[in-house]
Amino acid sequence: MNRLKHNWLICRAVAEVTYKEWSAYRTHSLVSVIVGPVYFMVQYFIWTAVYGGQTTLGGLDLQQMIRYFGATALIGYLIMDFADWNLSMLVRTGKFLTFHLRPVHHRSFALYQKLGHRMLGFLFEFLPCLLIFIFIFGIDMRPASLPWTLVSVLLAFLMNFYVNYTIGLTSFWLVQSGGIRSAFLLVSGIFSGALIPLDFFPHWLQVTQLFLPFQYIAYMPAMVFTGHYSLGGLELSLPEAVGMQGAAVLVMFGCNELVRRRAMKQFTAVGA
Amino acid sequence: MKKYVDVYKQCMYSAIQTASAYRMNFIVSSLITLVGNILFPLVTLLIYRAGTSFPGWSLYEVLLIQSIFTMSSGLSSLVFGGLLWTTMSHVREGSFEVILLKPLNPLFYIVATTFSVESVGLFLGGAALFIFSAMHIGAISALAWLQFTGMFLAGTAVLAGLSLMMAAMSFKWVGNSRISELADSVLHVGKYPLPIFPKAVQAAATLIIPVGMVGYLPASALLGRVQAADFIAILPCFVFMGAGIWVYRHMIRLYEGVGG
């Protein structure tokens, strides 16, 4: 119990400090208030044109499709992360040593930082864009099931963090992991479902996505939001889908822990 | 004039030498850019694969728009790609004075020293897609090629203007690494056939921030779909680039060194 309380105090302190630190750059977050709606507007007109007279595409009607893109944009603000870049920078400069000596696990520290950073994102990106989507675009942004959507977004938050942190860990071998990071961003951008719902992909690629982490970051929470999840011929109810997402997060955490332990053996603290 | 040409040639040479010093990084970056471009029209491919389309546009016609957009971005990025980040870095660190002390036009100096060799991958990826889609749209007349060339250059001028305006913004919005996202979001409109957007967006994308000239109008020229009135849109493109140069030079005058 004491340990839980101790961790909670650390979490609150780190999140609070990160929030204050990034509050100095809150206008950076406000860029999303312009960028998000512009991207959404383009998606809106693309899909309105593409649907034409058709009622459904990829199992979604036009309204569901618009809601899907609204949800992916908003969820993106809640789960955004750059733990990979941060960790890579710490390893490259040798500053990771100072974290190695602290009585707090760096992964936990990074997670708490992300919490603080995204709290700022919630206020300066998520809320303004949600209001724009509802009142300017007139989109119904009520989730099919609020509790399951919240759990799914939380799991997407963790999945995104663990995946990014694992990418960052490659710096212990490569020092400069920019190439891997760019390649991952490219693949993730396509296969997370942020560009187009994964139902549009060929069947074999949809099935492959069930075993990769990408769909659990954007596609699954967005589909849970719309109230209907299917991929590669697999139709799941919301609790089943969220359960599968939870299992995927656990597997990813296990992989991350495995890589982290091996990475620590590589650490030489050069540059500190 | 000769001095400027010589300086630019020397800067290009230095950029190539730098790229060859970090060959692996250059190859990986170029490959990722190339693959990224191959995957860029994926959404279009998947939409057409699902049995639907952009009304009035075949798959290859949409790919033609997107390939021209990519080529134009590659060309602009080659020349103006590093302008934003270099300006931003100098302003943040307060080292812009060093550039102001050089016996050269500061804007020219920054443009010349940020020649981005890596953008060759972007241009080549777009060119490959362009050749592929152009081969599927039938015969193209010499007049259409001429119209295309003029519009393509105008589109590249729009991208240059956008780069200049974003870089100029960094003089006041210090250290905001997300400025480029503003330009990217507006450019997104130029990647698709303009008629799918409402008239107001079409007008803005032709006359105010003429992103329609980056992909849509040059592709229309090749397809023989341009009207005489469309050529009027060339003028705002060069006005836009001129405005970018003016704004950047104006912001230089407002620069206040605080670091150093």
In terms of topology, how is this protein built?
The complex is a heterodimer of chains A (272) and B (260).
Chain A: H1 2-23, H2 26-51, E1 56-57, E2 60-61, H3 62-79, H4 83-93, H5 96-100, H6 106-135, H7 146-169, H8 171-174, H9 178-191, H10 203-209, H11 219-226, E3 229-231, E4 234-236, H12 238-266
Antiparallel strand pairs in A: 1-2, 3-4
Chain B: H1 2-21, H2 23-39, H3 42-49, H4 59-80, H5 83-93, H6 96-100, H7 106-113, H8 120-134, H9 142-169, H10 179-187, H11 199-208, H12 216-222, H13 234-254
Helix pairs in contact in B: 1-7, 2-8, 4-8, 4-9, 4-12, 5-9, 9-10, 9-12, 9-13
Alpha carbon gap, first and last residue of chain B: 31 Å
**Largest β sheet strand count, sense and barrel closure of chain A:** 2 strands, antiparallel
Shape estimate of chain B: globular
Distance between the amino and carboxyl termini of chain A: 36 Å
How would you characterize this protein structure?
The complex is a heterodimer of chains A (272) and B (260). By secondary structure, chain A is mainly α. Chain A is built from twelve helices and four strands, in the order ααββαααααααααββα. In chain A, the strands form two sheets. In chain A, strands 1-2 form a two-stranded antiparallel ribbon. Chain A has a two-stranded antiparallel ribbon with strand order 3-4. Chain A is globular, with a radius of gyration of 19 Å. Chain B is mainly α. Chain B has helices spanning 2-21, 23-39, 42-49, 59-80, 83-93, 96-100, 106-113, 120-134, 142-169, 179-187, 199-208, 216-222, 234-254. In chain B, helix 4 packs antiparallel against helix 8, helix 4 packs across helix 12 (216-222) and helix 9 (142-169) packs antiparallel against helix 10. The radius of gyration of chain B is 19 Å and the shape is globular. Classes of the chains: A mainly alpha (272), B mainly alpha (260). The A-B interface holds A 25, 27-28, 31-32, 34-35, 38-39, 41-42, 45-46, 48-52, 54, 57-58, 176, 178-179, 182-183, 186, 190, 195-196, 200-202 and B 25, 28-29, 32, 35-36, 39, 42-43, 46-47, 49-50, 52-55, 173, 175-179, 181-182, 184-186, 188-189, 192, 196-198, 201.
